[in-house]
Amino acid sequence: MRGIWAVARYTFSQCLRMKVAVLFILILAMSLAVMALGDDPHKTLADRIRVFLSYSTSLTGFLLSVVTVVLAVSVVSSDVQGKQIFTVVTKPLPRWQYIVGRWLGVVMLGGILLAGSGAAIFTVAQNMRGGEALNANDRRAVETEIFTARNKVSPDPIDAKLDALVAQQIARLKEQNRYDEAIQAFVARNGGDIERARQDQAEQLRRDLAEKLQSAGPGGGLSWEFSGVRVAGGDITGSGEVKEVDPNGFAIAVRAPPKLIGHLVYTGPVIINGVDGQVIAVAPDAFAVSFTREDMGKPRLSNLEPGKKVDITIPPNIQITYKATAAQEPSDGTLHSAWAIFNLARRLQFWQSRSDSANLPATLTVSARLVDNGSLTVEYLNMNVPNEQTDFSTSVTILNKDISLLYRVGSFEWNFVRGNLLILVQLMFLAALGVMAGSFLSFPVGLLLCMVLMLFSFFTGFLLEAVTLGATPTGGVDPLTVIGHYAMKGITFLLPDFESTSPAESLVGGLNIAWGTLTAVWAQTGLIRTAMLLLVACLIFHKRELARVQV
Amino acid sequence: MAESNNAIISTAKLTKVFRDFWLREKVTAVADLDLEIRTREVFGLLGPNGSGKSTTLKMILGLLFPTRGRISVMGKRPTDVRIKSRIGFLPEESYLYPFLNAHETLDYYGRLFHQPRRERLRRTGMLLEMVGLTSVAYRRIGEYSKGMQRRIGLAQSLINDPDLLILDEPTSGMDPVGTSQFKELIRTLALRGKTVLLSSHLLADVEDVCDRVCILYGGRQRALGSIDDLLAQQEFTQIKTRRLTPQMLVQIRRLLENAGQDILEVTTPRDKLEALFLRIVDEAQRQRLATGGAVATGQLAEFLREGTAGGRQLIEQLVAGAREEALPAAGAPVTASPARPRTEVLEELVTAAEEPGPEAPVPPVVPAGGTGTVDRAVLDELTDNGPEEG
Known about the structure:
The complex is a heterodimer of chains A (551) and B (390).
Chain A: H1 2-17, H2 20-37, H3 45-81, H4 85-89, H5 95-129, H6 136-146, E1 149-153, H7 159-175, H8 179-190, H9 194-213, E2 215-216, E3 221-226, E4 236-246, E5 251-255, H10 258-261, E6 269-272, E7 275-282, E8 286-290, H11 293-296, H12 299-302, E9 309-314, E10 317-323, E11 325-326, E12 334-343, E13 348-357, E14 361-367, E15 376-382, E16 396-397, E17 403-410, H13 412-438, H14 443-458, H15 460-466, H16 479-494, H17 498-501, H18 504-508, H19 515-543
Antiparallel strand pairs in A: 1-17, 2-16, 3-15, 4-5, 4-9, 5-8, 6-7, 6-9, 7-8, 10-14, 10-17, 11-16, 12-13, 12-15
Chain B: E1 7-19, E2 25-38, E3 42-46, H1 53-61, E4 68-73, H2 81-84, E5 87-90, H3 102-112, H4 117-130, H5 146-158, E6 164-168, H6 176-191, E7 195-200, H7 203-209, E8 212-217, E9 220-226, H8 227-231, H9 246-258, H10 273-286, H11 302-305, H12 311-326, H13 343-354, H14 376-383
Parallel strand pairs in B: 3-7, 3-8, 5-6, 6-7
Antiparallel strand pairs in B: 1-2, 1-4, 8-9
């Protein structure tokens, strides 16, 4: 193993001296500078941070991937091309150790560059976090939607409900002796056989019913059930200073740091000096809390006066993100709604009227205390009905895939580390790919091969979708599509899907990258795929002649 | 494969055929080569460009695989990693990492031999001193001249104090000082019991250091044997003595005529240009004149002198002895004479030299222009015969 380490050390030095690291740092620094120059101060702080995190993380991942591939192909192929390999493999160094050492050296450099750029991005993001938010909502978005690590839960699927509805509808048509007639009409219109027509008809029915189930007419409502919501701990604690006390209104106003205020929710719970209260107002630098008469009389609150320090504990929140699509575009672009969330066991309820931009994602933040034994029922009421002010009305669709519940499970810091570990495993794979290509191809050919495969990995999802098996209008299947589909399946088995494991989206959305997910990616890509590539590289290198004919 | 007990390398019917992309036979670089290189000998592979020397070496090193035939190195296959710790290799060009400096290069190769840090540092320092690169040890190798790169290449091949040293065109690109020191090194290593296999087309270098040679042409073996056997001209006798007067030469001629012999060539030997060059450089180095290039001490690295055969003192004595034998003294004629002189003729010559004869006019003695450049006029005068009479 000392041979591997010796080769790895010198590969690291070699890569450093190739000035690739300097070039990478320069490009990254220039890109960050351009981003800073293009920063729009009129945007919300949350959006500015999102843009920064998205671009910087994606750019780092992409640049490091390119750097890793170039170096990995180069270090092996150039040794063969430049014949330095003569003086290396004639030493007591098994060829496989040379290959693994080369790979390790490239990964070491990639890891260090990643750590450096990660530290820079983290520092800049934290610096931006301390900037001034446009309003309380902006601050809340920064603290609870970005600098956090949340689990995302989709609503319980409607498949079972849909299946039942489809069966019910078909049964009804059959009872009325209209089903066969409808099928015949379908065959006459579209061609194909009866069985195919039955399937297509059922699918069409299913699609129509699914749309109905996910749409609400004016004044109508929608409902979702969420289960498996495990909000564990996650209290946010800090301290503030009493700004004002209203003994008659049983309320106090507290000045607190923006990072703390960002976690407060209007009408949500907050604990001051150990006493439960309810948030009744939130400003960028202060908030107001009301208490019951009984609690207000407790010594921990009764002797408060302006300027006194108080301990603040904010119980965890949950967020519901959704995208409402209007059947008819509202003239002011705004959709009106009412949301209701209940926890009957605790006799808690949350009710809020909202006006959101149509067709854009919106977030509703509520206290996690509304979760009832891991479950939550969310109801929506479409308030776009004609009234005294307007005649406008529209039905609204919120698809199941467009609504989700999020709750905090960890810190941004550790999430950021896990995100970078995802990039590292990507680099490990690409380094192995590069070394494998370099073990039998010249630099330009090897690089070309790696770049093509890397692009496959980055766009796996898109490519798979492009060759999805589907019936032609006549009911047949295009043979080229079948070949493409199974070829892509094979490729995606061998190549990792970088698109789905990219940390940028998670970091920008404050979504938790679970240790389990990370472990699975490391096992599949970092161990199995990388080891397979290295094994192939070692076999090729062991079997090939390393000198050329010169006669 | 007939392999004697002391063979360190042996090949049997070794053949290498190079094929093109379509696997059509392109060229046969080595054909049916049977070699046996013994331990403790300096063996030379000779041949013009493209004769298969480098291909043979690369097959011995496991860089190329034979098409047919077998190779055994230290009783193992050439690709066996276990034998590599006992082998040193200097390729035809010093294929080293240009981004590393000399110190890092030797340290790197030392690591590949799993040498402990202290030992690596010790050997690195000694080798740099030996090849005269101490002052430029921290300059990148990419900035070195070709000769300096050869020197560091040589140093890397010795980092493990190898039992078998394989050298491909070792003196190519080296200046005469380096070449001379290099040959000296080979002799020393041979005295220490190392085996050296070298390929070259610089015949003088090979002749100076090799015990046995194999001459290749077109990938086939054309001659194989010891230098003495191959080069000795058994039909001639060469006598070397201090400068003779014309009268003495006449006497010698008469003496030989009486013995039924004739003088074929009389020359005043010249110094070798190499020897002259080395003297000038040595003088400059003694005066410590500035140079940006390599300044070799000419001393062997200590760890290479640490032998098992008799200890350091003995080795140095052997080395000193070898130096006297092998290197011409300054100004001395350099004409190796493998044939043993006949003592009775020598005695007569000495006697005759003490009694110079005044009679015959003595022709001037012309300097030899090298082997085969004989001034016939001198010979004619010596024998008092024109060419048509002789």
